[in-house]
Structures are given as structure tokens and as C-alpha cells.
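REQUEST FORM: STRUCTURE PREDICTION
Request ID: SP-0412
Submitted by: Lab K.M.
Chain count: 1
Length (residues): 1175
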Amino acid sequence: MTTSMGNPHYLPAVCIQVTIINFTVTFDGLQEQLLSMVVKQERPQLESQRSELLSSIAHDLQLLRDLEDKSLSLLQKSQGHILDDQDLVDTLKKSKVTSGEISQRVQQSEETEKSLNKARLKYLPVATRGAVLYFALSDLASVDVMYQFSLPWFQNMFITCISTPEDRPSSADRASSHLRGTLRPSSRGSPDLAPQKTEKDPPLRPSAHDLNKHMKQMIDRLTYSVYRAVSVGLFSNHQLMFSFMLNTSVMRSNAKYGDIVSQIGVIEDTEWMVFLQGSVLASMMDEDTLQAHDGLSAMQRLESQSQGVVFQRPRWVTPSMWRECQYMEATMPVFDHLLRSVMSNRVQWELFARTEDPYHIMEAAFDPAVIAQGEENINHMYKEIFHWENLSRFQRLILIKTLRPETLVASVRMFVNDQMGSKFLSTGAFDLREVFEESSAKTPLIFILSPGSDPGGQLLRFAKELRGSTLHLDMISLGRGQGPKAEELISKAQILKGRWVFLQNCHLAASWMPKLQEIVDNFNKPKADVDPQFRLWLSSKPDPSFPISILQTGFKMTVESPQGLKANLARSFGTGGTGAVSEKLYDDVDKEASWRNLLFGLCFFNAVIHERKKYGALGWNIPYEFNDSDLEVSILQLDLLLGMEGEGLPWAALRYLTGEVTYGGRVTDDWDRRCLHSLLRRFYCAEALEPGYTYSPDEVYHPLPPSFTFSEVKQYIDGLPPVDSPEVFGMNQNAEKAYLESQAKELVDTIISLQPRLSGGMIGSNKSSDELVLEMAADIMRSLPETMEDVEEEEEEKQTSTSKRDMFHCLSDVFKVAAVPGEKRARSHAPTPVADGPSHPELEALQPIFQSALVTVLRQEIDRFNNLLEIIHKSLRELCRAVKGEIVMSEPLEEAYNAMLTQKVPAQWKQAAYESCKPLGSWVKDLIQRVDFFASWSDLVVEAANRVVRPPPPPQPMSRGQTQVDAHDLIKTEARETPRSFWLPGFFFPQGFLTGVFQNHARKQGVSVDSLMFQFEVINTNPHDNEESLNDVKQKIPVRDWGFKGPPPPKEGVLVFGLYLDGARWDPSNHSVMDSLPGQRFCRLPEIHFLPAQISTTVPVQQTDSPVDNAFKTKEEDPEKKSYECPLYRTSARAGTLSSTGHSTNFVTTVHLPTDHSPEFWVTRGVALLCQLDD
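STATUS: Completed
RESULT:
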């Protein structure tokens, strides 16, 4: 049995019954094969001599073995004394002489082989480049299953490239070339067709300089040919990655085999790993290394220790960036004193942070005079200049990826351009005529589809252009029951003259794919009768069921939707009637005067909603697959409604049909639908018909005058900027930065997926991978309690109150008693007495506590956390045993092992945990904070229960000299069972907490829960909620202090803290939402008062001692103040499973925030509240 899959996965039951042999070519093996091809082409007699020599050596070695076997056979058959057998003695003497001659001949042959190999190795750089290119291709299958390339295909391309004659030289060059005897193959076909040299007329050997030049030409031709052939079959978001991988693969091989020919530099393994896994490697650094690389000079460190001086890093450098820089400084000498320079030389690094092109700014040394100009009155003792001009080009990328990730993609483009030339950045667009001419009847032509793309129209146009009609093209869309019809079409088309068959959507016929593979394999059989003009066209989305052999032998082309507003509009107004808007449709004189304006606006709206998805969650919560049919149907609706009689334009009908039915029918998220309607109102409105109206604040995009002809519209589209402004989508520059950062992350993550598993040696540590995993597992188990009840109590609490564990047991019994009504409850769930705990009558006194809905929420949250903690500890204990070899390493344990090495949360933990996008280190720290918050809350419940069971003694009179304690810092002294302020992000199920608040209020007021809604007020009275603190989102939130210390909580409702604004900021001075500052996407929101109130009623104003209540109820409403209904999500991903309510499971609730702008302004900006950030 054989398989074409490079890394097949079989069940264990199959593996134990068969022997699996890996015949996949290795790098060294392929290098040797390609070297033989090159030498055979360039020095055929050298390769011929080597082949003859190897054959001679093998023949002589066989003769030696035959002589040995004959001698042993004679000795075995000899009878009597062997010296008496004269024939045996003569044979042995003869064998000895022959053996000596053969051994001498073999030794001479081996010496000759060494000299031949030495001559052959001069062409090793060509073979090495070929092997590097092939393995770069073979890795692409890990990116997309459709990226399959076979070894025979690559070998044919390799032979073609090395045998292709170079550009015709001048007469002088030809003369000198002939004198030097440089070989120039005269045929483009097989190397066997090149003129052969004879022993009587040996070629003159080229000089080393000419040989290197010749090899460089072959290498460049091979590299570009491979790039061009492969890039046509890659999606646009993978083409830059492929160019970069070709470049870096060559540079990494240069570090091992030398850079004799290409002269593009080298990349060491340490540099490569820091570029890819910098954050992971930095998270594994020990504390001693961190302290040694703190960015302080010896004098600054002395001042910090002796005088308490605090030296802070620049605000734009995040903690994760700083830690990566520490690792770079510790492991790479070229980055010595990097942190000290960042700390001291603010002018140099502010320049680095602000420039749009950090890659090229590092080509020249930083001018020290800039410091004196920018900071004339500042002491320059500690101003250390970082000499970034000494960095290699790739080392520049490392620094950019760490400190300026939003510019990484642009910098990688510049890097590839500098290293290999701009031709390796050209888009891999294909030309159907060229593809057709290069293909054959036995070669399938495969369209790889992206969402919303359809090559059918393009193929029909090409068929008509080539033959004058489309009658020779048979098209069939595969699906259920279409397989036999497709097979019949192919069998007829092979015999008939000049027929084409186009099988669309092969991914919809997975069960028929083996039959398709059989049909294509029959094309290449010796007796196959296929018409030379026959062509088989296939289209499919990426699908693992598509036959690998067809992908390897076929010609692949990717078909994608246009990228950018300009390309989308150009597609809508396509030439030759191929677009949704034809010249006849646009110039129809019978239409209303507003027809052209609204038609162009509709096409612009279609382009905007297509391009918004590049902004990720800021654009759409869920990426939708809008296609051409949506635009075509909307145009028909616009035509129909404008033709109806009536006064004025039917704006409501237009917006409903387009935004709610046609496009809105694909939108499943309510908040995305709200955004879609807000965008549509910008194009379907009366103002759009008035002169001077623009689609964007920069006035670049605007409606076209009705007098514009179809050709003038196309000219306007051709003149649009190639790069879209974020304002036209309703975004700001921070959204553009987020988009660029996501592109950089996608690029790096894709390259990481092609790399081997991270190991201790790659990390640069003396520890193995197993040791690192064991150490991380021990740290996590040490930092997390086994259960919530195991959280350490304060020593004074242990002495003065019933233990938390005992009280938890008691409260659990109370919950169980309350859960079952009647006598059955008393029999089956009788409370269990606890030593020194409350008795059964005392449990009845606890009814007011456990009847609180929030205490029930606490108990449920504790159960969820206990379940998660149990799973974490159990899996880590099993993982440690498996690493030590005590138990079998199961699949979940292996996944956890790999996840910990790459700083990801194991899947087993994710299934039992809350939603989060944090890496493992930040996730564990966040979990510790959550556990601490609920442990502190449970302390309040235990203390409140203790106060009920054992009332405190009466207060003693204060002695002289004793000071009065501020009541704000003694919240726990009150008989409360809830925190002062709630950390909403810390809840497993925040919706349950909000429901609990409603239930408490409904019981207190005697109203229905369904009749309640929240009113919101952002509180600016806390000192830690100043503007500087709110903008510093990387600052750790002291959950215990903010939750349990401070002014008394409100009498009604709850306070909530720890939320973040995404896409906007909170202005404390203006008490409203404002546009975010440049370079700052997130902003922390101050405490919010969630006040339950009955729907359509006002909250009665009551006197209270709480400043929070007073701030809320005495504030008069500003009639000009608008309110934005801001959705609250658990994570920045925003997307989740669609629940029965129509909302995403990631969605929590909505919060109304005051604003000076219209709500649509924030809707199109994608502004939302988040419970947690990604790091």
C-alpha cells in the first residue's frame, strides 16, 4: 500500500498491523540528485566518468566478494589436510594475487572519485538552492491543503531552468565565452539534447569568476521561475509570506553551506527563533536574567536602590515589548544596551516610534545633535545612543516586529525588495491565454476559489475570445447526483474535436472525488486517446477531499475577490458588460434623475461593506461572504422602486429591502446589522442627492454628478487612491493600525505553522523541552489553589471566625436544603454538623444571606472555578507523570505539552474555562486574580454568616491616643455579603450576575424581573480613575483594593469596574465618550453604576448617604447630550456561537454611554466595551 500524503495519520490499530516506511526524500538526498542533474548538464563527461567509476568500483567489490565466497566454499569442501590439496593451494594463491590487484584498483578508483567529487562540488550551490526551494514548496501544504507540488514536477522545472540558454551575449562576450569554453545549452528541452563533448576534444574549464557568474544566473533563473509558477496558485495573503520564506530559507541555508554565489547574507538559528517566537521565549526567561537586563546603568541602579528613584520605560513600550527586548539583549550581542538606550534616549526612540518607515530609518546612524536640539536643558549623562546602523537587514526586522509590529508587513516587503528584487513582490496574477498555451490535454487546470469568487464568467469570455463562441465549453456544477453526468461529459469530450469541460464546485462532491482522480489518472496511460485540444477545467474551494495527485499534476490558479475600494468599484463597472453595472444600464435615459447617483452610491456601499472585514472585529463581529448576486438584486430593487409612481423617493423601502432583506439576510449578528443600516443611510439619503455631499470627511470620495457618462465614471474610479482611507469606512487611524498589526500577526503565525515544534535547544536554554514543561507545570500548580476553599486566609481571620471551608460546607448544605421543597428535602438533604460550626437552628438564621441572588451567583461561580481548578491540577499532574514516563502520553496530554511550549492555553482547559484570548502566562495571572476576587467575596459571606451566628461583642470605649479609623477602609466591618464594587470581567457567566442584580431588586420592590432595565452612570469620583490612569490600559488593576475598599457602595444597584472601551476613550472632564487618541485603541472605563429601574419609568430620587447615589440622582439630564448604546463583549474577538436570543455567546449586555457625537458615529467606528484585553 502506498499514499501520496506526506504526513498521513492512521489509527493505532492500523499502525500495529503494518510496517510504515517513509520514502519521502530528504534534503541531502535531493541535494545529491539535483547535483547529478546539474553536472550532467554542465559537465556531462564528468558525470559520465563518475558513473563509470562507480560502476567499476561496484564491479570490483563484487569480484572480491565472489573470490571470498569461492575460497570459503573450497575450504569447506576440502577433505583431509588442506596443504595436500594442490588445487586448493593454487586457487588460494591466485585469489590472493587477484584480490590484491582488485583492492589496488578500488583504492585508485576511490582516489579518482574524490577528485571527481571535488570538481562536482563546484556546482553544489545550484543543487543546494534547488533543494531549499523544493522544501519551501513542500511546507506550503501546511498552510493550505490545495498548495500541493510534486517532486517530479519540480525536477522537470529544475532541468528546464538549468538547460535554458541565457540571454544572447554581445560579440565580445561570445568570443570570450568561446575561448573560455563556457557551456551554453542550445536546447530548452532535456539536457541530453545539448551538444556532447568527446574525449578527443575536451572543453576548456571556465575560471572561478565565470563559473560563479554562470551559477548565479542559473540560480536566479530557477528561483524566479519557481516563484512565478507557485505564486499564481497562492492566495494574495500568502504570496508575501512565500516570497519571505524563499528569501529566509536561502539565507538560513547560507549559514550552513556558505554564501558563495548569491551574496544575500545569512540568518542564524537564534535570530530566526527570536523573530518567530520572541514572546514565547521571553516568557520563559528566569528572574535573574530579567533583573540583569532592566535597562538601567550602574549609576541608575544605585540611585534606584538607595534613593528609591523610579525609572519608567516609555509609555508606548508595552510590558510584553519590554520583556521581548530583554530577551533580545540577553541572547544577541548586537542588541547590547538596547534597553538602556530606550530608557535614556527618548528622542531617538520617539523618532523610531513615530516614523512611518522604521526599516529605512535604521540604515543611517542616529545623529546625536538631535538630542541637544530636542532636550537642551536636560542632563545628557545617561543619554545612550543605540547604533542601529550596525544591524543586518533581518535584525532590523526583529526590532520592528518587537516594537513596531504595525509596520512589519511593509518592512518585510522592503526586505524582500532589497534582498531579491521587486519582481518577487509582483502579484501572482494569471493570464488564461498563457495558461492555456502552457497546458496540455492531460493537465487539469484548477481554479482555487475564495469566498465570493466565481471564475465562470472569466472562462466564458476567454472561450469566446479564443474560438468566437462558447459552444465548445460544457459547464456543470457538481453536487448530489451530478457525478455520472460529469463523467459522461468528460468521456465524450476526450474523443470529440476541441471540447472543454468545466466542473464547478468540486468541494461539493467529496464522495465523487476518487472517481475524478481515476479519470484524470487514465489521461496519462499509454493507450489513452485524448484530443490535443481537450481541456479539463476544475474549480474548488480549499477542501481536504480534493485529490492530491490532481493538485500535484494540475495547473493551479487562485481566484479572489478584488481587494480595496478602487478594485471593487472597477469590478462593479467592469468592461464588456462583465460587471454588475453595464453601460446600457447606467445610461438608461428612461430612469429617474437620481438613478445614476443612487446606483453609484449602491456600488460604493457594496465596496465599503466588503472591505470593512479587513478591520476584524472593529469592522464586523463575523466576517460575512457578500457576493455579486447581492449587488445585482439590490440594483434590480433600486430600478423597481424608482420606477414606481408616488411623491418623493421611497427611502424607507429602499433601506429595508437593501439593508434588511438582501444584504441583511446574510448578517446574523444584531450589532452588525445595526452597523450595516448606519452605513447604508450614508448612501441612501436625501442629502446624497445634494451638491457638495461626500462619503468621507476627507472629501476624496463623493457622489458623481448625474451628467457623468459611463466612461467618465470609470475614469473617476481609476483616479481613486490605491490605499483606502479608514475614514471612508467610518474608522480612524487606530483601526488602520489594528488592521496592520493583525496582518503582521497573521504573517508570523503562518510562518510558525511551517516550523518544527519548539524545543529547549531552540530556546537557547540548557534545559530540555521536558524540563521546561515540568518547570512551568510546577509553577502553575504552585500559584493556583486546588479549590477556592484552599485560598489562604488571613491569620487573624483564622483565630476569630469559623474557617472558610467549614462555613462553605454549611452554606452548601443550606443551598441544598433550600433546593428541595417539603419533607423530602429534610430527609434527603439534612445539614451535616461541622465541628465548632453553626447548628441546625442557627442555619435558619442564615436564610436572609442565602436568599440573596448574588450569594447564589457566588456559589455557582465558585463551583465553576473549582471545576476548572480541578481539571488544571489533574491534567498537570498527569502531564508530569507522562513526561517522566510513568504513564502513556495521551493525545490530550500531548496537546497540552505542545501548548505550554508555545504559550497557549491547553484545549482541555479552554473547554472548562471562560472565554479568553490571552496567552498562557497572562491567562494564568488573570485566573489568579479571578480566584482572589471570589475568595475575597466569599470572605465577606463567611464573615456575614459569622456575624449572624455569633454576633460581635459590643464596642469598647476608645482609649486615649487611639485614632478614629476611616469607615471607607472598613467595608468588611459592615454586615455585608457583597463587595463594594464588582469586577464584572472576573465572572464565568456575567449575564447571570446581572440577572441576580435584577432578582434582588425585583424581590425588594415587589415587581417582575421582566419589567426591569438598567440605567447607567459612569462614576468619576474615584481617584484612580483619572485620565492618565484610564489611558494606561497595561496597568494592572488592583482588583482586591478596587472591589473591597473605598467609599460605601450605593443602596440601589451595583458598581462595576474593569471594563475597557475599544475604538474610543472616556473623557472624565467632559463626562462622555470621545474619539480615541492616536495610537491608542483601548481605554479603561471608570466605575459604572448599574441601577435597575422599571421600563418606561423614572427612578425616584431618595436621600442617601452614598456619594455614588447622590451623584447619580441629583445629576440633571443635559438635553443636548446624546447616548450611545454600546454593546459589551467578553473578549476582543466579539464573535461567538449564535445563541437562541439572536446574540453571540460572547455578548453580555448593552451599556448606554453619554456622547457629544451622534450614535451612528460610534456605530460605524465599531466602538464596544470589552471585559478583557488580549494580553
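NOTES: The chain has six domains: 24-168+180-192+206-211+238-254, 269-425, 432-559, 565-736, 760-951+968-978, 984-1175.
Reviewed by: T.R.
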